[in-house]
Design goal:
2 strands, about 50% helix, Peroxidase, domain 1, about 0% strand, binds protoporphyrin IX containing FE
């Protein structure tokens, strides 16, 4: 009996240690304050020095962070190169249009020079995306740190987790729901399409062959479609031409995206479909009332997105190079 109770206490203590350990292992603001106190400043300085010369990279970097978080959580799995035996996320079809990998690699090498093996690629990506968007006049959001890098990156995971431009609102809500995000997050985060560009090929079906009969998507404003077809996407097979998602202000983070969407000028079906549900439509209408509120709400959703399935504590690793698992 005595032995039994001793064992009972041992198990209890082990459980308590495990619980305390796991509650300690979570993201926190300034996670590197002791282990690499200059890390966040180094990143900010680099971003402030370079993004003004290439403001379009801000769009690429926030998209990179989004594609990272939706597949296996924010663990930098999107940055890993394919090998002979593994096709990584990066080489999946939706990720072929991602940009900004070299920028992240350079930031990582500068941070590594300061503190080798301390700061994760997942945190570097989250911080760089935030600082880049803020440096072009966009919102600022909190980035608690302490993410660790994943060791698995598989192309097949991308199509399962990542929303596609042809998805309707119910599929989008399911995919966002799968990672703990709701309708408000869907509308707010889609607002990032106020910056950046798309390829004509992404909307060629909408413009030229929507139902297989050489027709146009009726949900796309016909004047706008005609304009795109005569000036930009002149050919259904065009794979290279880029178009602004928020024409005239692709480097300005503003309400332009929502203004486009309510005029049926959202570029993708995934943008247009946000008008089809009364819930998402009313969230759009809310945003259109105040740029300031949009920034505040966008920041909340970004912080939430940055927490998706993060690896913390002793999970994963701190990669030496962002494109290579250690
Ligand atoms: C709701 C589901 C979403 C879908 C279906 C979607 C889809 C796409 C597609 C297809 C492109 C253009 C690809 C190309 O043709 O080059 C794109 C670009 C972009 N997306 Fe999304 N996206 C979504 C949500 C998001 C979110 C949540 C963010 C960030 C928070 C984001 C940020 C961007 C940015 C900034 C670009 C422009 C990138 C550049 O200029 O290189 N998107 N998106």
């Amino acid at each position: 009996m005595k032995m039994g109770s001793q064992n009972y206490f041992k198990v209890l203590i082990i459980c308590l240690i495990a619980i305390i350990g796991s509650t300690h292992a979570q993201l926190q603001l300034g996670f590197y304050a002791k282990s690499c106190p200059k890390a966040e400043k180094i990143i900010l300085k680099y971003v402030h020095k370079h993004i003004p010369h290439v403001p379009s990279l801000a769009a690429a970097l926030i998209r990179l962070h989004f594609h990272d978080c939706f597949v296996r959580g924010c663990d930098a799995s999107v940055l890993v190169n394919s090998t002979q035996s593994n096709t990584a996320e990066r080489d999946s079809f939706p990720n072929l249009t991602l940009r900004g990998f070299e920028f992240i690699d350079t930031v990582k090498s500068i941070v590594e020079a300061e503190c080798p093996g301390v700061v994760s690629c997942a945190d570097i990506l989250a911080l760089t995306a935030r600082d880049s968007v803020h440096s072009i006049g966009g919102p600022f959001w909190k980035v608690p740190t302490g993410r660790r890098d994943g060791t698995i990156s598989k192309t097949a995971d991308v199509l399962l987790g990542l929303p596609a431009p042809f998805h309707n609102v119910s599929t989008l809500l399911t995919l966002f729901g799968n990672v703990g995000l709701d309708a408000k997050d869907l509308v707010l985060l889609s607002g990032a399409h106020t910056i950046g560009v798309s390829h004509c090929s992404t909307i060629s079906t909408r413009l030229y062959n929507f139902t297989g009969k050489g027709d146009q998507d009726p949900d796309l404003d016909s004047k706008y479609a005609k304009n795109l077809k005569t000036r930009k996407c002149k050919d259904i097979n065009d794979q290279t031409t880029l178009i602004e998602m928020d024409p005239g202000s692709r480097n300005t983070f503003d309400l332009g995206y929502y203004k486009q969407v309510v005029k049926n000028r959202g570029l993708f079906q995934s943008d247009a479909t946000l008008l089809k549900s009364s819930t998402t439509k009313s969230i759009i209408d809310q945003q259109l009332k105040s740029n300031k509120k949009f920034f505040i709400e966008f920041a909340k959703s970004m912080e939430k997105m940055g927490r998706i399935n993060v690896k913390v504590g002793t999970d994963g690793e701190i990669r030496k190079h962002c494109s290579l698992v250690n």
